[in-house]
Amino acid sequence: MAAPPSGPPPSYRPPIDEYAPPPGPPPGHPANQEQYTPPSGPPLGYSTAQERYDPPPAPPPSQSAAHEHYAPPPGPPPTHTDAEPPPYHDWTVIPDTALLPPPPSIGHHASPSSNASLSEADRAHAWCRAFPMIRPHEPTQQQHAAILNGDVRLMKAPEYKGDLLMPERGFWRGTTRSGAKDACLLTSAPLYFAAADSPMRISIKKTIYFEVRVRSLGSGHASDESSIAIGFCAMPYPTWRMPGWERGSLAVHSDDGRRYVNDTWGGKDFTSPFKAGDTIGLGITYSVPEKPPEYGLSEHPGSTLKGEVFLTRNGRKGESWDLHEELDVDNEFGIDGLDGQFDLHGAVGVFGGVEFDVTFHRQHWTWLPR
Fold first, then answer.
1. What pLDDT is attached to residue 328?
2. Contacts for 4-12: CB closer than 8 Å, 24+ residues apart
3. Engineering a disulfide at 268: which of 47, 103, 105, 231 sits with its beta carbon 3.0 to 4.6 angstroms away?
4. Whose CA is closest to 127, among 47, 237, 225?
5. Which residues of the chain have pLDDT under 50?
6. What is the pLDDT at residue 67?
7. The pLDDT value given to residue 12
8. What is the rounded CA–CA span in Å between residue 104 and residue 108?
């Protein structure tokens, strides 16, 4: 009986998990590569001088020995000067605010006492646009002398409801009825002639001034709203508006004590309200500034004058303000017509029942300008 051949049949495939590699290396694998050992020594072409690199003992040919240690050029740079540096300002030091000028007064949008209607204000604005301020004119010697001597006349406005008498030269007495509407009395001639009185022309200060005595306010009725204002206006001016409310005018009002400068709103706090028996004076002093402008810098002669507006009460000088002070953004007219380039008339505004005296002659004033 023949013995079976050794090994599995040719078509037999053992299971993968039972497979074991054949013993020994494949037939083409030389026995000496079973464990590789690198050849001894460096590869062919390797120089022993490159085994450890050392830099060359000297700089490259393009590098000179002078560059090894750089030295700055002698002397200062061309733009250097020997001037002393500016002084150091210690910004941490708080300045003494007592040495600073007072801040400008804050304007109001309405008066706490009485206010005219918006329609009256709109009508006045339209009127002022239609009738711009007139240019100054040269007075005759006789006209100028009459004003300087206090021979001044008040014009009775169409809106004025009451009596207005002149007992003597330069002295006027007025009475209005209860409930009277706003009215502005203006002098027939300017108290300030820009062409004749400007300090730029006469080289000395010029002060214009007059007084109002408040005999009564309210005609004895507590419910009667009334007020009187004293001020100055450039012409023409809407006579149904109190002075200070429209362009080219300034005034102080008795009901709230505020000052109004081309201010159609609520004015600025200034003094205490006037009361019956008070004699109130208002003046402007124009003077040449310390540093006059260069020739041709100003379009209008006298427009660069300094101006101080001041108030007196019962013979004593009181509050004042600089005409060129900082203004609110709401004041679109600034000080137009008031800085010496236009003629200025005296103005007395009234509404309600009031009794008052107006004095333009020096002999009746309770305070005399120096």
1. 53
2. none
3. 105
4. 237
5. 108, 295-302
6. 54
7. 63
8. 13
> In a 3-state reduction of DSSP, which class is residue 356?
strand
Angstrom distance (rounded) from CA 230 to CA 293: 32
- The whole-model pTM stands at 0.68
Q: In this predicted structure, what is the pLDDT of residue 132?
A: 95
CA atoms within 13 A on the CB side of 82: 1
**Cα 106 to chain centroid, rounded:** 12
CA–CA distance, 182 with 245 (Å, rounded to integer): 12
pLDDT in the model for residue 6: 73
Q: Is the CB of residue 332 less than 8 Å from the CB of residue 295?
A: no
* Dihedral, 198, 318, 281, 158 alpha carbons, nearest 10: 90
Cα separation of 119 and 117, whole Å? 5
d(CA 364, CA 170): 9
A 10 A CB-CB count for 47 gives 7
144 DSSP assignment: H
Amino acid 117: pLDDT: 80
Residue type, 5: P
Name, in order, each residue with C-beta under 8 angstroms of 134's C-beta and a sequence gap of 6 or more.
234, 235, 236, 342, 343
Considering only CA atoms, which of 201, 249, 255 is closest in space to residue 228? Answer: 255
Instruction: Tell me phi and psi for residue 13, to 5 degrees.
Output: -125, 110
Radius of gyration of the chain, Cα coordinates, nearest whole angstrom:
50
DSSP string, 18-87: G--PPSS--TTS-GGGSS--PPSSPPTT--GGGSS----SS--TT--GGGSS--PPSS--TT---PPPPP
